[in-house]
Every structure is written in C-alpha cells, then in structure tokens.
Amino acid sequence: MIEKAKIKDAKEQATFSHEVAAKTKRKLKARRTPTPGLWFGLGMMGLIGWSVVVPTLLGAALGIWLDQHHPGSHSWTLTLLVAGLFIGCLNAWHWVAKENQDMHEDKNE
C-alpha cells in the first residue's frame, strides 16, 4: 500500500516538474520574442482589409468594362463585384486561419 502511494507521488512529481519546465520554457521564449506593438496590429488590419478590397475592386472594374463592351440582360458589374468580394473574404479567412495556426503552434512549443 505504501509503495503504491510512493509510485503515485513520484508520478505526480514528474508531471508537476514537466509542467513547471514547460511554463519556464514558454516564459523564456516570451522574453526573447518581443510582443508586437500597436502599429503591427494596425498593419495587420490594413493587410486583411486590402486582401478583401483589391479583389472586390478588380471584379467591379472588370464588370464595368464588360457592361460597356458587352451589354446584356444582367449586370456584370454587380455579379463580378460580389464574386470579387467573395474571393477577397476567402483570401482573408485563409490568411487569418494560417496566422492563428502559427500562433497555436508557437504556444504549444
């Protein structure tokens, strides 16, 4: 009975020391890697915004050109504007998901 308690205590100590070592490693890494500042955050917001705006504007410009040169019963401008917006949102979503995955990988290390 006493040996089982000793084995259990040894396992708990090993688990505890492993947790302390992992936290210490994260703290040392955080000290080496500076936290991004306000300008970095604003730059990332701008980057995400442009990744949506550029395809939207390109779709609208192409739609205007098509409406002028090949008029039809439906509006190319509106259709391609929505398509560009959709592509831009997918692009931004993909980029944010990638950054989120990178952050979680760094956190797990």
Would you mind describing this structure in some detail?
Helices cover 88% and strands 0% of the residues. The chain contains three helices and no strands. It has helices at 2-32, 38-69, 76-108. The protein starts with a helix and ends with a helix. The mean pLDDT is 83.
What is the gist of this entry?
Helix content is 88%, strand content 0%.
Features:
single chain; about 110 residues; mainly alpha; about 90% helix; elongated
Please work out how many helical segments DSSP would assign: 3
Strand content: under 5%
Please give the largest β-sheet. Answer: none
* Strand runs, count: 0
Overall residue-averaged pLDDT value: 83
Overall tally of domains = 2
Write the layout of secondary structure elements.
Layout: H1 2-32, H2 38-69, H3 76-108
Helix pairs in contact: 2-3
